[in-house]
Design goal:
about 15% helix, mainly beta
């Protein structure tokens, strides 16, 4: 017969007996940090109007993908209301499968109606790297938390702006579109 269960029971019993009769610990004085209100989530970047004519002559056939909206697999058409916050993630690389230095997300309804949002490079894109056999793509992921405040209703193409070596190229996401409703 094993003595392990008996030892565990004896240890628990001794801890219970040792704590009996002792006064509860006195409350600690409240510090400024304890009184400070919880930090709110920073607002998502609002839409910045984008001059889509800047894209002329700078469109590339790079690898640009949206893999998720709000953490769920990206459908071909994602519906959101004007003013909603939307999390967008995916991965991108230039035509030589190099990870850009900086990226942003562009929603383009037509040449006169486009918006740009900051994106953060670097989230894991290990699956893309594995499937394509390109280990340099492991950090090609991006995320962007956007606020559709001020974005006019309509169906938008999603473009990725890729800055590499001082040159910006624009890559259209072939499959997904964003429908912004009233």
């Amino acid at each position: 017969m094993s003595t392990k269960p008996i030892l565990v029971a004896a240890l628990c019993a001794s801890l219970l007996v040792a704590s009996c009769g002792k006064a509860p610990p006195s409350p600690q004085p409240e510090t400024a940090e304890a009184r400070a209100p919880a930090k709110e989530t920073p607002p998502a970047p609002s839409a910045t109007t984008f001059d889509a004519s800047r894209m002329t002559g700078h469109v590339t056939q790079s690898a640009c993908f949206v893999t998720a909206f709000n953490g769920d697999p990206a459908p071909d058409l994602f519906h959101a209301a004007a003013g909603d916050r939307v999390g967008v993630s995916g991965w991108t690389a230039d035509s030589d499968f190099n990870v850009p230095e900086q990226v942003s997300l562009i929603l383009r309804r037509d040449p006169a109606t486009a918006y740009e949002f900051r994106a953060t490079l670097g989230p894991d894109a290990a699956r893309a790297a594995e499937v394509l056999g390109k280990p340099q793509l492991a950090n090609a992921g991006y995320t962007s938390e956007i606020a559709l405040t001020g974005v006019q209703p309509g169906t938008y193409e999603i473009w990725i702006s890729q800055l590499t070596g001082g040159t910006t190229k624009y890559c259209v996401v072939d499959k997904q579109r964003l429908l912004v409703g009233p």
